[in-house]
Amino acid sequence: MKLFPQNIPAFAALFMFMIAESPTSVAAKGFLVERRGSIRGSLDASSFERELNTALGEALGSGGSADLERRLAEVQQRLAPIWSTLPKNGAGNVERRSLRYLVHRHFSRQSALQIRGFEPSRPANASGWGSDDILAQRVPAFVEAFLESNHKLERGFNLGDAARVVATIEQLIFDFEGSVLQKVYEDQRKPLSRSLSRQGMEQLLESYMVRWMLGEDEEGIRVLSKDPKLLRESIPHWDQIVSFANGQAKALDYRRQQSPTAALAAGEARPGHNTLAPKYSFEDVHGVVGGITKSFASFWDSECRSMKSTLVDMDTHHTGRVPLSKFYSHGLDTEWRFGESEEYLRDLGALDETSLRGKQVIIPNYIQATSNCIISSQHYLVCCVNDCEGLLEEIESSIGAPTAEPGQILAVVGNVSSFSTSLDEEPPKLQGSLTTQLMQIAAAHGGQVPLHGRLFAQWLHYAFPRECPFPHKTGAVAALTPSEFGERYLASSEDMNKHAAEANATDLSAATLQREDLHWMSQWSAEEELIADCASMGLRAPWELRSGVYALVGMALLLVVSALGFGSSSFVRKGAADAGLLPHHGKATSSE
To answer: Fewer CB near the terminus (10 Å): N or C of the chain?
Structure first.
């Protein structure tokens, strides 16, 4: 039986920043509402920061201002590499769309977590953080006040603000884990005040993993908990998952043994709960499950690698794409995984329908798709590690600015060390069409290439087609889990066999063709999307260039954008006027 764990319980106390669906608890809501008016009305920068830090400290349960400052400093250090390359206004701050982008990238890079509401595919506009379904949901009052304050709307958000947002989300995730753990204690009739033996904690961790992975499926939890054989059949690699969870407990023992003073300072040890007295309180177990969330994607990465390796073996032309016929043929013969329906693959953004070879599955988009996220909760997902993040990190660290000249980018990309760890045996071939495309992107932006634009992300995809996902236009695809998509998420045997029958014919027709002969960049779209407007980046839009053609086209585009009301789109969009840019075709890249 193929398991798609979908529903994980909602947060217990505060709810996820910008995306919570249920009312907060009365106790939590009280002090947050009380803070709301003072923060929203404050225009004085120093008063604003004091109010925000006080509210944040209360929300995070900080032991004191020194602890809060230390925690925020740690978060800022983690955010700094991406922050240095974000486009900023004259005050050195970013707008809310850039902040949203930063949060998404941070959690993706750190723990392969996709925070609901921060997905790049989800629209957001200048007057709100997300699409209508998000805006209709409740958010913690002090966070709402923080986001909507006149101070922040006028001046933008600084690195400290970004650290506060990330720290708040991290705490909310930790609180959620605590609520799941408390439910496990209740299921096993264990008082929260009882200290556990090592064996008792391992039993509890096994039950925790079942509940964490199945979420609110109480019937499924009950059935699998009573039937170990069915549990192993339902959840792939269950024994290894249990060993991983127990390994997190062993790591706690190791820290207690090797650094008893540090363990005491971190609250991981205390009299009666240390290396000489191996007992574990609720707080100890809570810390262990917190480590599970942060490191689970790394543990599960071997499964993702295996899946990617299978797809790469089918990508004989190094395009980062596998014919749908081959995809289904392999699913029928050997794989339990490759069974998503054509409709579902299309909605996930994992299907390229523009090629002369017919429909193809885009390898990095498929690996990163929510259908392959092993944990799927109402507020976050644990997914496969994004291989492109390592490449982006190296590029951003080398350039250290929001934009760069094509020559600088080509030099950096041509020597990235992160690529040596990928499954691809060939270095990127940057000469020819890729160099031309990069030059044309720069020409559309006054000689500079924005690192955080859709066109550069698209260029990276074709430079590293097996590592970097193809960037669809905002709103063109949906990050839906199988249960959210509905019963049609799986392809029928009839459809799979129909496509698989075409596999041999597809191979024969393309066997003698080179990659360039396959028109492998047929999905290229000339439409740009930036996380901030051109003025704040110091860039010129295409219609601001000297060419009269650019000016006329730009003015026309501006009129169309204004007439259609696209000015509030989540990204600033510009259609590149250069006729040399390849056209785009198909649903995945069609106009919205």
So the answer is: N
